[in-house]
Amino acid sequence: MLEVEQILLAGNRGPCGGVNMSLQATREVLAIVSGRERVYTNNEIVHNVPVMEELYGQGLVNFENDWDKVEDNSVVLFSAHGVSPRMHEIAQAKNCLTIDVTCQLVTRQHTLVKKAAADGLDVIYAGVDGHPETMGVMGEIPDDKLTLVQNIEEARKVIVPDTQQAVLYSQTTLSTFEIREIQEEMRGRSNVAVPNRWDICYATDNRQAAVDELLPFVDFVIVVGSRKSHNSQMLKERASQKVKAYSIDRPDEIDIDWFVDGIRRVGLTSGASVEERFFVDTLEWFKLKNPNIQIKQMPEVKAEPVKIFALPQKDINLLKARYGEAA
Ligand code: SF4
Fold this sequence. Notes:
Layout: E1 6-9, H1 17-33, E2 39-41, H2 49-57, E3 60-62, E4 75-78, H3 85-93, E5 97-100, H4 104-118, E6 122-126, H5 132-138, E7 146-149, H6 152-157, E8 166-170, H7 176-187, E9 192-193, H8 202-214, E10 220-224, H9 230-240, E11 244-248, E12 265-270, H10 276-289, E13 294-297, H11 313-322
Parallel strand pairs: 1-12, 1-13, 2-3, 2-4, 4-5, 6-7, 6-8, 8-9, 10-11, 10-12
Helix pairs in contact: 4-5, 8-9
The structure holds iron/sulfur cluster (SF4).
Keywords: 4Fe-4S, Iron, Iron-sulfur, Isoprene biosynthesis, Metal-binding, Oxidoreductase
InterPro entries: LytB/IspH
Binding site for [4Fe-4S] cluster: 16, 103, 201
């Protein structure tokens, strides 16, 4: 029998308002189209393997930003991570009907970066090279107006000429430790503005803080979340600073040998791109392996009253109109 005696459940975990909106909108789109034509997405709607497998099974096609794979006049979803203006232009040129399920907090970043450039500022952007959110934001302004920094070492090397003013913005799902360091570095520059409000979204911030709350009481942490999910990997990285931590998509990835050597208390959390049912499956795995296991729910570090952001209703109504259905 499993020797783990207690499971502590993170107070803030699981899907955020943006992910719930993106997934609900995608499911609505697939239901409206109902197999009458292909529904494309430029990228994984959210970085979650099991949920994407379900959506692909329901007819969603990921064209991985390769427009050659998309016929003119198609129905195209833009993922929760957002896309560059160029992607919208191509969709328009191909006469595609787009449903934009970008999280509103990512859209905010696009707006800030565009405004900075319009005001004559350079942008120093902390983000992960190649991550879809970063690619989308970077596409908003000319390359020579934005400097991408991926860590504190790169931030230290940034040179902003004395004649130029810059502002620091970031990807929404970075580590709060890391962004604090980068902010400190930039505060030391007289010509770089560091906004008081950081760009880490509430879901990332709260889930990382909730892991911090778990750590004094556990010997091990499991993060339910995909390897591609940056916010999930940041939770794993956070936990790994104190205890052993793994990320999984499903409980069948758990290796019982992880819990030898006196592991008695396990912390359980999930990334912002993970629906609660996947978390529950993992909890059930532990209950099955040890029916006497104690389960302790940790308090929320911060209440999250908004469970779902506003759906892109205008886009959805246009899709309904395509089939002569009332909005
Ligand atoms: S993790 Fe944050 S930025 Fe990403 S979808 Fe959720 S709320 Fe939006």
